């Protein structure tokens, strides 16, 4: 069906407060063209913080 089209791309999420904690996830580039921001647990801050998408 959708062979050859890379709809899902791998993105890296980094903690916005300290910048140490990182997560790797995937997103659909057609549904979310802007940068992704999720609340994830940061083991360095010991709380849930906003992790934003960074460039590779």
How are the SSEs ordered, and which strands pair?
Elements: E1 8-15, E2 22-28, E3 37-42, E4 47-54
Antiparallel strand pairs: 1-2, 1-4, 3-4
Fold and architecture overview:
The chain is mainly β and 56 residues long. 0% of the residues lie in helices and 52% in strands. Strand 3 and strand 4 (47-54) form a beta hairpin. The model has no long low-confidence stretch (mean pLDDT 90).
Q: List the uncertain runs.
A: none
Q: What is the residue-mean pLDDT, rounded to a whole number?
A: 90
Structural class: mainly beta
**Strand content range:** over 45%
Number of strands: 4
Helix content: under 10%
Instruction: Determine the N-to-C terminus distance.
Output: 28 Å
Largest sheet strand order: 2-1-4-3
Anisotropy-based shape: elongated
Order of helices and strands: EEEE
How many DSSP H or I helices? Answer: 0
Q: Please tell me how large the radius of gyration is.
A: 13 Å
Summarize the structure.
This protein has strands spanning 8-15, 22-28, 37-42, 47-54. With 56 residues, the chain is an all-beta fold. Strands 2-1-4-3 form a four-stranded antiparallel sheet, with no helix packed on it.
Question: Key features?
Answer:
56 residues; mainly beta; four-stranded antiparallel β-sheet; 0% helix
